[in-house]
Amino acid sequence: MGERMSTVHFQRASNEASRVKTDPLTQPEPKAPVADAGLRLVGTAALNSLPSDHAGMVLLRQACAAQAALVAEAMRLQVRLKQDGRCDPIQAITGASSLERAAAELAELVRVLDERLSTEASR
Question: Structure pTM?
Answer without folding.
Answer: 0.63
